[in-house]
Write a structure and sequence with these properties.
The complex is a heterodimer of chains A (263) and B (294). Chain A has 263 residues and is α/β, with parallel strands linked by helices. Helices cover 37% and strands 24% of the residues of chain A. The chains are: A alpha/beta (263), B mainly alpha (294).
Chain lengths: 263, 294
């Protein structure tokens, strides 16, 4: 996409920064000394092989995992160690890869829970506004969320997080389990549009090439560390990029092959 | 035939008592993931709170409210002081069951020197007799049915229509996502222990009212009956627990009329075993706890 090629070179002032963070499960670090930042109108893609620690990084950013070391800044405020509830109040929205909706609740109830911090009148307004962004949702408000298709489900998960109109959106593989066509339109249309509305977007993607096409900045995470980062174009121009990437075990080439992806 | 009609009346009372207990028990499990085997002891402790008030000349209806308040506070503290610290340290599910069993034994044995091992009964628990067709019930038994119906409607309204109730269901379904939505799950769980504790305390008082007499040893029986109704309906499902209570309450009374009152519980648990063999997930169980009804 030429969009990313023509964009000005300076990155925006960061709304969210992770500085040298180390975290993991049960005292065993999965990511080590990772630093990333994202600013308004920016899509930062995090790519890397399975098990590189991409989801762990996102869980650390949103307060689900405690940091063993490092700091997290929201604007200028140090929010290291704050709870997920507080980060949600402060404008950090998170869509996990799995368990991304409340299955036994209806679509409307899911949206209401997304807007838990709003009053009843605001919830009503936001349901209308979010329904305008995802026109598929309003006709199915009374349906139980576990009856939705994969695509509808992801729409609901994103609509749910938009209820609070967060400044920062953290999306963990939003295209997993979607058809290549749906995945492509989700990334190009919805994710890019959300950044266009001024939001800072951090995106983890298995579909590396698709992610590079819509990202403003990309970090390549390998074995828990940022191995490479830069503008997608610069990365793609590097002679050794695919080699590095493939050497790390990621299927960059394969991710462009929809047949393989569907398998 | 009259015998069966009369038994049907007693079944209505029995299912009301069981429903209050079982809904509280199953909500505790469904939302907090805690199989609280101390539930029966909290019930019987609350029954004794009402007993001492009643003995001091206070009407049993005030005693019932006191029992509910006691049950709520007791359950809330039980979670805060005992269960939550163990959970924070990552105690396994089965470990927590053992912890609650230990609590149950401790409560029963701490209570024993205070209340004694002998049976007691409330003073004014009969009231006048009311006859309708072949059904003969006391006014107090009819009041128990009324209390149960009102409570079930309140629980339904809470879970379906209030912000807190929906947050409870959301927390039950996906606690991590609930926190990411900004839902203060800690406070939601506190509310769950208070509400289910109140149901537990109230259930203890009505169960005691519905027996001729009660003793500390009845706590275990209260637990087993609530557990049976909850499991029959699908563990963690409030509407399932209501259905389980209807079946167990009715079957035990009808079998008592048909056969012998001594085999009441055998029949109830026979049905439980049968349902578990045919449908191990319980009657209403679906994916995820506290699913919306219908």
């Amino acid at each position: 996409m030429s969009d990313s090629l023509t964009r000005v070179e300076a990155r925006p002032a960061p709304s969210l920064q992770a500085l040298d963070i180390t975290s993991g499960y049960g005292g065993v670090p999965v990511i080590r000394d990772v630093s990333i930042s994202v600013g308004p109108r920016e899509v930062v893609a995090i790519i890397g092989p399975n098990g590189a620690g991409k989801s762990t990084l996102l869980k650390s950013l949103v307060g689900i995992l405690r940091l063993d070391a490092g700091r997290i800044l929201l604007g200028a405020d140090d929010v290291t160690g704050r709870s997920p509830e507080e980060l949600a109040r402060r404008g950090v929205g998170y869509v996990p890869q799995v368990n991304d909706i409340f299955e036994p609740l209806t679509v409307l109830e899911n949206l209401e829970m997304g807007g838990y911090l709003l009053n009843a009148r605001q919830v009503k307004e936001r349901v209308g506004e979010v329904g305008a962004v995802f026109p598929q949702l309003p006709p199915m408000l009374a349906r139980r969320a576990d009856k939705l298709s994969g695509g509808e489900r992801k729409m609901l998960a994103i609509a749910r997080v938009l209820m609070l109109d967060p400044d920062i959106l953290i999306l963990d593989e939003p295209t997993a389990n979607l058809s290549p066509k749906l995945a492509d339109s989700l990334l190009r249309e919805q994710v890019r549009r959300l950044a266009g509305l001024g939001k800072a977007v951090v995106l983890v993607e298995q579909r590396a090439r698709a992610a590079l096409q819509i990202a403003d900045w990309t970090s390549v995470l390998v074995s828990g560390s940022v191995r490479l980062e830069g503008r997608p174009k610069e990365l793609l121009d590097r002679q050794d990029f695919e080699e590095l990437f493939l050497g790390a075990g990621t299927e960059l080439a394969a991710s462009d092959n929809s047949k393989l992806e569907e398998a | 035939m009259d015998l069966y009609v009369a038994a049907f009346g007693f079944g209505l009372v029995g299912m009301s008592v069981i429903a209050i207990a079982a809904v509280g028990f199953t909500m505790q499990f469904g939302i907090t993931n805690m199989i609280n085997l101390a539930y029966g002891e909290v019930m019987i402790s609350s029954a004794y709170v009402a007993y001492y008030l009643n003995k001091a000349g206070i009407t049993i209806w005030v005693g019932m409210i006191a029992g509910a308040v006691f049950g709520a506070v007791f359950s809330f503290l039980l979670n805060r002081v005992v269960y939550a610290p163990f959970l924070r340290r990552g105690t396994s599910h089965i470990g927590m069951v053992i912890v609650s069993l230990a609590v149950s034994l401790m409560v029963a044995n701490l209570l024993l020197p205070i209340v004694g091992y002998y049976s007691v009964s409330y003073q004014d628990t009969t009231g006048g007799l009311i006859r309708a067709g072949g059904i003969v019930l006391t006014t107090n038994q009819i009041a128990i049915i009324g209390v149960a119906v009102v409570l079930m409607l309140l629980i339904h309204g809470l879970l379906r229509y209030t912000r807190l109730g929906k947050a409870m269901r959301a927390t039950a379904a996906n606690p991590t996502l609930a926190r990411n939505c900004g839902i203060p799950t800690g406070r939601v769980i506190d509310a769950v222990w208070l509400i289910t504790g109140a149901l537990c305390g109230l259930a203890g008082v009505v169960a005691a009212m519905n027996s001729d007499s009660f003793a500390i040893a009845n706590g275990a029986g209260f637990l087993i009956t609530a557990l049976a109704a909850a499991v029959l309906g699908g563990a963690g499902q409030p509407y399932g627990a209501m259905i389980g209570a209807v079946i167990i309450g009715m079957v035990t009374e009808l079998s008592a009329a048909a056969w012998s009152p001594e085999y009441k519980e055998v029949v109830a648990f026979g049905i439980l075993v049968l349902v578990m063999v045919l449908r191990p997930q319980g009657l209403l169980a679906k994916r995820g706890a506290l699913a919306a009804a219908g």
